[in-house]
Inverse folding.
């Protein structure tokens, strides 16, 4: 039977729609494009090169946190301490610089602190058997408390050297390129590579989908979960280093609310809170979507309360899209299985 | 400076008219000599003749007898632990140390700062309830909680014999007055602070108007919507701008009282309004964020004739350093040093000397720019290096 051109078009449309529904990353991309189009019509300045440049630059800290969070979510956990870990690592960097350590050593100290906090989370969860939510909530309180006691609530200042302005992205690296952009790209490549092309990545997905199943397949579940939290701690440390350079001071409340933004960006990007699902590209798009919403609100000049409503709305839309996507991908899998088994659909 | 030891402004009994006149004249002369109208002599400075009383008009020995080695348990509840409240607390500690040395007061001081409560006040409510339950003698409170809720709490505490002093608060929002009622309708002993409208927001607007000679566009980075501090400072700032038809506020955004959000908001607004002449950051951190946005865009800071003015409010050591470095044009110093010192003076007058003090104690504030930043920074650094530690 010959296929007419209208039937062919219909098939292509069906495929595109199905692809959009099955792949949550494409869903958030569509949402982002929609926001950009709406903004471009109402506020031409939105698509101005320097505005888009600001928007991307301002999304980088949340983006790096969201990438770390995605790894934890994929492995079936959640890291509520990621924001305060970022602040603690920013504090370590600043204090190390004030102590007279060279920049390189200060950065290493911050990374070590991030890994240590991640390890702490992992141990609380795997050795003491605490639920992820409780363990990381406790770590949030602990890290925040340490920073408050240490600084007595007074921001750490006086550590900025010219190189640190580059680290924070306040001074571009070359042309319009900033170091945080390069760092975010590297983090994306490394974490995307781990999730997509390594055995560890497969184990993250396996543990997040079913701990029992992964265990029966010989995966060392506890070790994998610990590794996910160490990755998250390291991502927080990288974000903290950038934040110390960007903020030019480190107040004790530097990380407040960042865990929510990181979770929101990861979930908007298609990561499932139930585990076993998520993409680094999704986290990147999620962070840019959040930054675009804030940017639009600032440009329009509406009160901040609307900002929260808009972000809440985007989050709900993303979770709903996730659910639809899960249902549709289930049906697509079912249809493929039936086709393979020769059962008429 | 002896006249500051016990605040004559608080109108207490026991001073003869002649003595008050003498004190006023001496104070005015001293202020003229030092060219100072804003910040008091730093603790450990002139009035720390403390040890022996020096030229002080207070009869130390007589007061020592009244104090009689009494211990007082004081709670301190700021809405957040920050550089500003640390400065306030340190200034208070310096004054406490002075009174301990001079009059033998025994202090038990406890700070319970909310970790992140600059916006809702609920955490501070719990802290104050804790002080009431533990029967402290006096409590200093600065809270973002609803004013009526706080007054109910103060009333409950007062019935148990606890005295409440608000500091850096926003009681002017409801315009309470002592014209008819000695308490002004409040359940506090005193409110030590400044008027956010006319002693902060208005001053910032006036400074911009003076520098720009009444012409130019302005963007504002504000605190979170709904904040009482924001409401009041906005009222004063907008009034000052409205007095100059050539000035126009072209854009506003929320900077959440933090530097990073201030930077993001300023970057966004500078993209939309690249020709602005001034940025008003409602607090110093947001103004410093705006200053970073100016640098990031390669724009010029105000040099007295051209560039972009950035002005904030608080009066922090970090702000003074930024002004001296030309990164921040100005700030409204709301006088944390004087605030902390006055809090203890008021408490001492009421709790130990049984004096009636004014419900509203206003401290002087002023704009700091390159011309006077060194003096303000010096005062703050002296306060922070002071001997008080509790």
């Amino acid at each position: 039977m010959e296929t007419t051109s209208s039937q062919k078009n219909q098939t292509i449309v069906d495929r595109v729609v199905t692809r959009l529904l099955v792949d949550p990353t494409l869903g958030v991309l569509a949402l982002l494009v929609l926001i950009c189009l709406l903004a471009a019509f109402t506020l031409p300045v939105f698509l101005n090169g320097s505005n888009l440049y600001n928007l991307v630059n301002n999304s980088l800290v949340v983006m790096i946190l969201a990438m770390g969070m995605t790894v934890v979510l994929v492995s079936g956990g959640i890291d509520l301490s990621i924001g305060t870990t970022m602040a603690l690592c920013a504090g370590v960097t600043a204090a190390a610089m004030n102590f007279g350590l060279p920049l390189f050593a200060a950065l290493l100290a911050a990374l070590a602190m991030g890994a240590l906090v991640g390890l702490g989370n992992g141990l609380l969860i795997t050795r003491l058997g605490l639920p992820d939510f409780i363990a990381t909530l406790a770590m949030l309180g602990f890290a925040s408390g340490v920073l408050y006691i240490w600084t007595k609530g007074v921001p750490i200042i006086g550590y900025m050297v010219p190189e640190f302005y580059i680290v924070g992205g306040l001074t571009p690296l070359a042309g319009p390129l900033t170091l945080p952009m390069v760092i975010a790209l590297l983090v994306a490549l490394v974490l995307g590579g781990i999730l997509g092309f390594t055995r560890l990545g497969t184990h993250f997905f396996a543990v997040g989908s079913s701990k029992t199943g992964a265990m029966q397949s010989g995966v060392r579940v506890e070790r994998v979960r610990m590794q996910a939290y160490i990755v998250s701690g390291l991502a927080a440390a990288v974000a903290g280093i950038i934040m110390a350079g960007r903020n030019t001071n480190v107040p004790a409340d530097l990380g407040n609310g960042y865990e929510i933004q990181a979770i929101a960006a990861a979930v908007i990007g298609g990561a499932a809170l139930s585990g076993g699902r998520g993409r680094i590209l999704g986290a990147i798009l999620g962070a840019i979507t959040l930054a675009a919403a804030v940017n639009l609100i600032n440009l329009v000049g509406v009160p901040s309360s609307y900002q929260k409503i808009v972000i809440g709305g985007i989050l709900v839309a993303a979770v709903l899209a996730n659910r639809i996507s899960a249902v549709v991908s289930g049906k697509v899998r079912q249809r493929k299985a039936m086709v393979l088994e020769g059962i008429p659909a | 400076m002896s006249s500051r030891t016990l605040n004559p402004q608080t109108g207490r009994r026991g001073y003869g008219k002649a003595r008050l006149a003498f004190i006023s004249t001496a104070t005015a002369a001293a202020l003229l000599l030092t060219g100072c109208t804003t910040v008091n002599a730093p603790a450990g400075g002139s009035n720390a003749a403390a040890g022996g009383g020096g030229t002080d008009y207070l009869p130390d020995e007589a007061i020592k007898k009244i104090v009689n080695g009494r211990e007082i348990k004081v709670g301190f509840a700021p809405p957040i632990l920050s550089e500003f409240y640390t400065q306030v607390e340190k200034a208070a500690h310096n004054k406490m140390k002075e009174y301990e040395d001079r009059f033998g007061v025994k202090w038990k001081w406890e700070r319970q700062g909310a970790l992140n409560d600059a916006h809702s006040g609920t955490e501070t409510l719990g802290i104050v309830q804790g002080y009431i339950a533990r029967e402290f003698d006096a409590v200093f409170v600065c809270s973002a909680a609803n004013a009526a809720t706080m007054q109910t709490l103060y009333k409950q505490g007062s019935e148990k014999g606890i005295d409440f002093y608000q500091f850096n608060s926003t009681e002017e929002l409801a315009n309470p007055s002592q014209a008819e009622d000695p308490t002004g309708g409040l359940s506090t002993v005193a409110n030590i602070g400044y008027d956010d409208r006319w002693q902060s927001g208005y001053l910032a607007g006036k400074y911009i108007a003076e520098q720009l000679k009444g012409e130019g566009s302005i963007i504002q980075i504000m605190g979170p919507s709904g904040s009482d501090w924001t409401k009041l400072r906005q009222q004063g700032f907008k009034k000052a701008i409205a007095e100059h038809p050539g000035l126009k506020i072209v854009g506003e955004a929320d900077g959440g009282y933090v530097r990073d959000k201030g930077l993001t908001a300023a970057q966004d607004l500078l993209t939309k309004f690249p020709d602005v002449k001034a940025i008003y950051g409602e607090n110093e951190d947001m103004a410093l964020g705006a200053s970073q946005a100016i640098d990031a865009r390669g724009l010029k800071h105000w040099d007295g004739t051209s560039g972009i003015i950035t002005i904030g409010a608080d009066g922090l050591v970090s702000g003074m350093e930024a002004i001296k470095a030309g990164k921040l044009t100005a700030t409204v110093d709301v006088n944390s040093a004087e605030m902390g010192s006055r809090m203890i003076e008021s408490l001492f007058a009421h709790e130990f000397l049984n004096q009636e003090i004014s419900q509203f104690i206003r401290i002087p504030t002023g704009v700091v720019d390159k011309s006077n930043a060194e003096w303000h920074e010096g005062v703050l650094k002296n306060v922070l290096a002071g001997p008080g530690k509790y």
